[in-house]
Amino acid sequence: MSLGTEKVVMIGGGGHAMSCLDAADPRRLEFVGYVSPKPDERLPLPYLGGDDVLEELQRTAATSAFVALGDNTARRSLCEVVTRMGFELATVVADTARVSPYASVAPGAAVLHGALVGPRSEIGTGAVVNTAASVDHDCVVGEYAHLAPGTHLAGGVHVGEGSFAGVGASVIPDVRIGPWAVVGAGAVVITHVPPRETVVGAPARSRRRS
Ligand code: JB2
């Protein structure tokens, strides 16, 4: 059944591409293959070449692209490149994820298996809500931010653009995490995190001060 199916080129062929392929709904997204500097035979998609083939693919084979790179800076950069080429950014939402009808998920974002996105929360362009992460009500997950598996945001948390929360991190209600900050794995964040700061531990503290 191809009615309503989006033809998509996967950008990247590593672990995150595999997770996103595994989570994507094949009735909605048809991956025509992947582009990467080098093939990885473990990804069960046709290898199409390097990024130099993208313009041709946009003309002939795919209307959308999905950038599956875990690195936030690289994902932003490639999302911008493919958007300039005229691709739409595909969005991956796993069928096992629960996204509130009162929430929004922007183009290019990934909400992977078992993730939860609560009401009035906003998931930004190219952001990743990884496996079994949860975002409670009234949160903002900024563009190109990444919540690693098992991250938990309580209500009203704002995560700035490009920020990364490591596996199992938790954030109490109404905390602001600045843009391009890093929250270490398992950290418990109870105070605001300045832009570009790295915090670790429970309670989380600046790495420079710990
Ligand atoms: O400029 C690029 C480029 N740079 C690297 N263009 C394209 N099209 N692809 C690029 N790549 C490709 O991204 C590499 O050739 C490789 O196929 C992939 C990176 O794979 P890797 O497994 O190293 O990282 P990942 O980003 O897929 O996964 C990381 O992030 C995930 C969220 C890992 O840390 C995972 O464990 C994690 N789950």
Description of the structure:
- With 210 residues, this protein is an alpha/beta fold.
- It folds into 2 domains: 6-90, Rossmann fold (3-Layer(aba) Sandwich), CATH 3.40.50.20; 92-201, UDP N-Acetylglucosamine Acyltransferase, domain 1 (3 Solenoid), CATH 2.160.10.10.
- It has helices at 15-23, 54-60, 72-85, and strands at residues 6-11, 29-35, 47-49, 64-67, 88-89, 92-93, 98-99, 104-105, 110-111, 116-117, 122-123, 128-129, 134-135, 140-141, 146-147, 152-153, 158-159, 164-165, 170-171, 176-177, 182-183, 188-189, 198-200, 205-206.
- Strands 6-9-12-15-18-21-23-24 form an 8-stranded mixed β-sheet, with helices on one face.
- The mean pLDDT is 96.
- The chain binds GDP-perosamine.
